[in-house]
Amino acid sequence: MSPSQVPRPVHVLSPDLVSVLKNRVEATMLAIIKKNRHTRCFSESPAFAAFHSAIRNFGREDNDGISDDILLDTFRTTISLTTYDSYELFVAKFLSETCQEDDVRDMFSPGLPYHIAVTSSTSSPKPKFFCQYLHEGSMRYGGVKIQNRNGDLIRTIPVAMGSFETVRLRNGLKVENDHLNIILAAGEWVTSPVAVGFIREYRTFLLMHTLFALAHSKVETIFIVFTTSAVDMIRYMEEEWESLVASIETVGKPTDQPGWLLKIWPMLKSVISIGSGVFSVAVPKLRFHLGSDVQLRSLGFHSSKTHVATVYDPSDLNLFKATSQDIIEYFDVTKEENASSIVPPWLVEIGKHYEVVCTTHDGLWRYRLGDIVEIAGFDPTDGSPIICVTLNDEGKYAHNFAAFLD
Fold this sequence. Notes:
This protein is α+β, with helices and mostly antiparallel strands. The protein has 13 helices and 16 strands. The protein has helices at 15-36, 40-44, 49-57, 68-78, 84-91, 101-104, 162-171, 178-181, 202-214, 227-239, 241-246, 261-264, 283-290, and strands spanning 99-100, 115-118, 129-132, 143-147, 153-160, 221-226, 270-274, 295-297, 301-302, 307-311, 320-322, 327-332, 342-343, 353-360, 363-378, 385-389. It has an 8-stranded antiparallel sheet with strand order 9-10-11-16-15-14-12-13. Strands 1-4-5-2-3 form a 5-stranded mixed sheet. Strands 6-7-8 form a 3-stranded parallel sheet.
């Protein structure tokens, strides 16, 4: 969708849009509750004790016979804000030296995870681990080795950055076959062979991608998670230029003129990368390298927990439409930290600041992402909130973007 085709956000939801948005969100929430209600974490964590107590007060030991309205109301009123502390005790069972199937099956969602996402540590001093399950319709290197009671290996679950696992899923690359995956050639839509994705050292990783990209003069799109990484890639390319061109045919030395990347890739049309929040610092430098003829587009609002929002206006790096594949709610930062301060998407107010709270198909909890957003309006087609990243009191972006990561 071009910028001229993007509908202007509305400031007030009509009754029809409220109904559409509310019905969609509640249907998703019910599906998540019913799917994950008997999981280990939800059944055993003290964070959800009030929910189970309320269910028992209805004369039920479980929620199988509870009406949808009561189930939704109980969830909203008893489950408050949760953090990684309450999650960590359960995910740690996957990281034990001898991971037993009986200890981890049905932990956050039925079955075993498809992938364990490792965060980039942008929001905390140490990485966090989040189990992600393979759901219907979802687009979701050593790994965790799951054993049965006899000690036999039954499953290897990859543990890696979410962006790498997305590539795995798209190409059907199973971790058990990595000894074969590593020799695969580049796909039709990429310049680098699969083996480059296995490089762990950051600088070498970017330089190898650069080397293969320089050998393709017909590159049209650069897809990279962070704008800061894009600037790092260009800086490393300048520093190692002689070594790089010695490995391929000469392409001409880069200059310090605006838009000089087009001399290397004359067909370059767009760079897709996260350029909001803390990563906005790299945007001016990247625009200098690209010039005015190459479009810089956002990757969206992602985290290791969920896909929060999609790009709303391609020309605006800081405007996003909240998604509905998981449950995105909003904590009113001016109120006390409890369940009553969590606002559903159809009740948020234009111009107000909220912290993003998510409940996903991968776990029944109201997780605080730590991201502060401002409500810019609503999509006139389906009522979804349109959000932008805001500044905190220190004048810094209160956002821990790290697409697919944390």
